[in-house]
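Continuing from the previous page of notes. For each protein in this section, the sequence appears first, followed by its structure tokens. Read the first protein now.
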Amino acid sequence: RLLQQLSGWLVSDDLGGEDAGCGGPGLVWLHTEQYNLPRRCLRQFFAVRKCFVFPRPASTQNMRRMEELSEKELDSEFLEQANTFCHYVYNNAEPKTISGGRTITGTGVSLGNLAEVYIEAISSGNVPCLENAVVSLAKIQNVRAVERAMQFYMTEMLSIAPLPMRPEELSDIHKIAEKKAIEVFITMAFNDNDQMYHQELMVH
């Protein structure tokens, strides 16, 4: 394991991470309360924590061209720690969920989209709020769900409704296609609690 030296003591990754997280004994911080607040929040909302300390991935000269380096050019200790980190994530990380217990993954409701919205808020200088990110994600996902359902409906109608046909036959086919399109929407929709996007789909 990698070791750090803090206030004259050698500490492991986890202990070092905890110490850095809330200010170690004997360390004097300016604006201590402001500094420690986000760290206390991390402790409160993330009951299980695992800290990893990464050494420099390359020499000072190579650090200037990090994006061009191959894996063989990276520091062996960095690669070892990176592999340890990945192994821990793959074996211990649980599916991400939001309020209501809804799972967000790489398909359907996208964790990637949520991360993009969250990072955009940080980059713009706004205080990132996960709830706002979820609202933005819901809008993106539900607009996409409406579009996908409408496309499905049109494809279904064109494939099973050869013209000319009697009005009652067309009405029956419409009901079948509409039901399937609604199922497509429900599968993709996310946090449409007030059914605003569901109603939008029905209007179309």
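Done with the first. The second protein uses the same format. Note its length before scrolling.
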Amino acid sequence: MDETTEKEKQLTKEINRLQQLIKEVYEPLTELTNESLFLTDREGKYLFITKNMANNFGVPLEEVLGKNYGDFHAPEVTRIFLSRLEEVFTTGSLRQDEHVSRQGDKIILRTFVPVKNQKGEISKVAVIGQDITPLKVTETALKRNEERFKDIVENLSDFICLHDLAGSILRVNKAVLRLLKQEEEQVIGKNLKDFLEPQYRGEFDLYLEKVKKVGHDQGILTVVLPKSNRRILEYTSILRRWETPVVLCIAHDITERFRAEQKLKHTLSLLRATLESSTSGILVVDRVGKFVTANERFALLWNIPPELIKTKNTERILAIMGKQVEDVTSFFLMRKEIMDRPERDYRFEIYLRDGRIFEYTSKPQRDKGKICGLVFNFHDITSRRYMEEALRRSEERYRTVIENIEAGYYEMDLLGNYLFLNDAATRIFRLPAWEIIGSNFRKFTTEENGEKISDILSKVLTGHFPSLSCEWALMRERGERIFVESTVSLMRDAEGKPSGFRGIIRDITEKRKYEELLKFHAQTDPLTDCANRRRFEEFLAQEWRRNMRSGTPLALIMGDIDFFKDYNDHYGHQAGDDCLKKVASVMKDTLRRPSDLVSRYGGEEFALIMAQTDLQSALTIAEQIRSRIESLRIPHAHSRVSPVITISLGVASMIPEQGLSPLILLTKADKALYRAKKEGRNCVRPQD
């Protein structure tokens, strides 16, 4: 009987010891690591839960125990959880998944750990949740910037080339491939010198030396293209020391501009599983800094033999840690500060000699309000730092491209409000960025152009076109209007959903003026500034169709200066040119409607088109022209009808009909002119 009593006392003592250990060591661990933890059976009932997780539910811990997972979560979330739980009970293997917190502001990595009873059967599952939101945010930002960088580079009309210090091509964007009319594999590895005019190849070596020496260069070069085509490019090159030294060359084409015990044991097993499943290295010390316990992750991070961990030899463990840090003195001074002021929460970064970086936190543990020890958490953040550095380099590359391209770059939200503009874009608007950002594109254009841009944004948003471009009128302050060309492509967020638009914007005002000038010269007789014959034929066909739709008459007057060859032979070509100009001026002054056209049909012959004009009205106008030309009193000593310049005119008018050709009208007017000449000249004759 006494022997039984003694065993019961020993068992009670051991249970009390384990309870105290859980209270002092393992429960604080879960608070330090910020990892949520609970124990559940096969049906999802909460058997054990940490305080921090109960706090997330907003209810006392006691009200959670015994309730089911579904009491606190949505049906779909509960279904996924029970499915994962069943996998663990069925396979006996550890499972992991990513889960969004109840508040929707965190991404949690859940680890499902099977817990076995004394018979070796899985009786419960421990679920450990770790907040991985910072890592996901960094990954998302890096991916977004890499996509943005790639999208910009690939869709720029500027030519972008990366080459090494010997001139060998490492990478080019699509604009370069379009310029060279070659595939990427045909270009990569070739030397830039191969694409230059022979006279530039000697200077190319000097260019490379300059870039190596001063880190940048800019200038103009000529590129030889297939079929002996040549393009002149203006370039800016910058030396970038990334993983290896490379030269970023940005060029644009200027050709056109240049041109219980069991429960306690189970709980202990659960807490140990929590400790060992943590991605952090955890070290527990007492109030004076002596080693109490640590998880395997701590030993792995610090390369400490498991046998030494078991000895709990504080001095030897600290010695091994000290040999691995870059700054030994700072490491031990930091430890001394923590032990001297244990009531504070600390967070440091430790740099190791092998290049790793640990995030190091400490949290005091209390018993009845008094500090009884500390828990240290070591987390390897090397990968995160590398990703942050990669993100920084990505941002640097992105900014380098954006700020060095000649074209403007912009970003808008899905409503068309500007989010970002580079310096080149603000110069086009002639406004500082802060006055543009937040404003809608409609503020800077006409209503008609606003609808056109809106239509293009809609087409890109629906995914029918990956990118589109358009020309539109941009309204600057004080009513100044310029013409711009802009491209539009879609931006997407980390989940692939549309988040906005981005594109390139260029000022094409001078280009438009040049095109209008070319069009004018292509359609105008250079001597008289009247329409030329080509424009006459286009206009006649156009007005024929328009008057056919409206059912109105179209009139044509053909005029020929009388005996002009004799005038030219007697007075000379300069006098002949002056005469033609004066005759043309009379015709243009007489026909003032925008819908009328005066053209030089050939030599001394003119043709006049008048829309919505019947024969009688056309005859009246023709007579006015004849009379005014005669009134000019330009001497003509060799005319056989008058001592001054005169003109003969033939007039025709008809309502165009489907199936008929405008040549019919031209023939009628020409015959009328022939009749006027035959019947004495210096007269007007109608069609037969």
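What the second structure shows: The first strand starts at residue 36 and ends at 40. The domain at 524-686 is CATH 3.30.70.270 (Alpha-Beta Plaits). We return to this in next week's lecture.
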